[in-house]
């Protein structure tokens, strides 16, 4: 993780290439047990922040033990479903799943050619996880005619082999080779999935040989989850990808997000206790987890861990702890801290203006006032007798700009996430520094003894706990997209905290005049 991202600012008000709530249509079969097909698609779309719609191609009688029967309604009725939706609603993405027979495929192809949705994900459902065949052999040729109309094709390894008329790949390199040839044949992107392969990791790769991606093969690997609950994983992943792609416009980013979500859905699947066979994944695991008090704060703290580790290793912190920090570095830090606090106070005031309760409004307003008082104290007691430039340093400017941009465009929850590292990381670093100073016997000749004593302030520790609780509560009340934005803002501020402590080493000058 980069310790000093002086120019790596990612403004939260950057234009979004897609819709905040994508309108996603699933064209697929129905699973009455709820784990696969249309039912899984609608859950996945909702879980990833989309508005789900469905046109049913086939009715199945199935459960977690397998498929008992399949009924394909008249293809003309499917076309009526599709026309009814597209004549009224703008469709941002389409996921195509089980199609059943050639006449159904022909209707879907004709509709796709007419409507031309922006994103089309085709999951060529041919064989269920249970091994049951879901596409008639006579329809395979018709299915191949649909492939060129898809932006992304997501076959499992048996389906990939069937589309190429070859034996199923038994190792990853062979699977990638098949994916490349399928992508070259139809001119689109293929998602090669390693779920059927043995081993402790589960690789997935986006493959495109026509220059549509940043490189021909983009591989993303994750841990393999040992579970029998994999019913509907293909349906769930493809519909999740369609939803995220309509929002991000970037297949690599979309796969990262969808794969991370599916990993959690598989990991928590046993909590559902559905069926006696191959059970479903837990589509809404992340929402339930996010609703538990303290859960989001715990996730934030885990993300902060690498930055704290980096901070403890910085020469500035080690010198401050030992008392051997060059005075010019400390003076630079103090001057930049005073400048930073002035900007930070404005962001705290903005949090108070956005706060939904009187308690939170008063807390952030008081915090803003205290920031200005601390800045004044720094100038009066510390900086008045020290030589330090009053010019704003590059790290200070970047950090303050990040906070101001977030406060201008972000929600209350996102603003709190951006604010929090200055409380939480500062309090934790201060606690460690003060503890090490006391453990060393509080040496009287320590150059920064008076500064280290300020870290023992219990009022600031209490305020930090309150800031954490307010942020956690805002995350519980927010949407999944809002929590993602909170995480981005928090991580960015954590990186700036590290950079701020490291800045004196890079920018403090041996001899600095007043100015």
Polypeptide structure, described:
The chain is 55% helix and 11% strand. The protein starts with 22 loop residues before the first strand and ends in an 8-residue tail after the last helix. The protein is an alpha/beta fold and 515 residues long. Helix 10 runs parallel beside helix 18 (480-507). The model is unreliable at 1-17 and 511-515 (pLDDT under 50).
Structure summary:
The protein has helices spanning 37-47, 75-86, 102-115, 140-146, 157-164, 172-186, 233-248, 251-267, 285-290, 295-312, 315-322, 327-354, 358-382, 394-409, 412-439, 449-453, 458-477, 480-507, and strands at residues 23-30, 51-63, 66-71, 93-96, 120-122, 152-153, 189-193, 201-207, 217-223. It has 515 residues and is an alpha/beta fold.
List descriptors:
single chain; 515 residues; alpha/beta; 9-stranded mixed beta sheet; 18 helices; elongated; disordered N terminus; disordered C terminus
What is the residue-averaged pLDDT? Answer: 87
What spatial form do the alpha-carbon principal axes imply? elongated
In terms of per-residue confidence, which ranges show pLDDT below 50 for 5 or more consecutive residues?
A: 1-17, 511-515
Structural class: alpha/beta
- Major sheet size, sense and barrel closure: 9 strands, mixed
Spatial extent as radius of gyration: 28 Å
Number of extended strands: 9
| Strand content range | 5-15%
Distance between the termini: 35 Å
Query: How would you write the strand order of the largest sheet?
Result: 3-2-1-4-5-6-7-8-9
What is the string of SSEs from the N terminus onward?
A: EHEEHEHEHEHHEEEHHHHHHHHHHHH
- Secondary structure: helix percent: 40-55%
Number of distinct helices? 18
